[in-house]
Design brief:
This protein has about 140 residues and is an alpha+beta fold. The protein is built from 6 helices and 6 strands; from the N terminus they run αααββββααββα. It has a 6-stranded antiparallel sheet with strand order 1-2-3-4-6-5.
Length: about 140
Amino acid sequence: MSWVNLYSADRQPTKAEIAEYIANPLWDEMNDFLRKNYKVEPSYSYSTCSGQPGWNIKYQKAGRSLCTLYPMSGYFIALVVIGVKEQVEAEFLLSACSKYTQELYQASHFSAGGKWLMINVVDDQILDDVKQLIQTRRKIKPVSS
């Protein structure tokens, strides 16, 4: 059953239900990365957007979006917006990204303040691409000792 049909707007899924639906260890790795490095907790929201309706998980730091995650069966989608400020750095880092991420970036048009990348996170390399793109939006502060 599709995600949007499993959980209606009045039935927010639990963290465990989300993880069970995705059933991919990359999900935990992504969330751990965001929590540990940015000291943020997710917020859950229900979207009626026709592009990706249903419950999604948003991460923000200092009022700025880091990413939005969309549960899918066996994987998840990470929405990362590359704005004008991040564009040069993101394009520089693309040469080290997977062919999939490079092609997605090239195919995405600049609109509404940036390139809205809906990245299917299906393997470790793509997860690393997402982490690097998020870091163009907000750097990870080094831990002081």
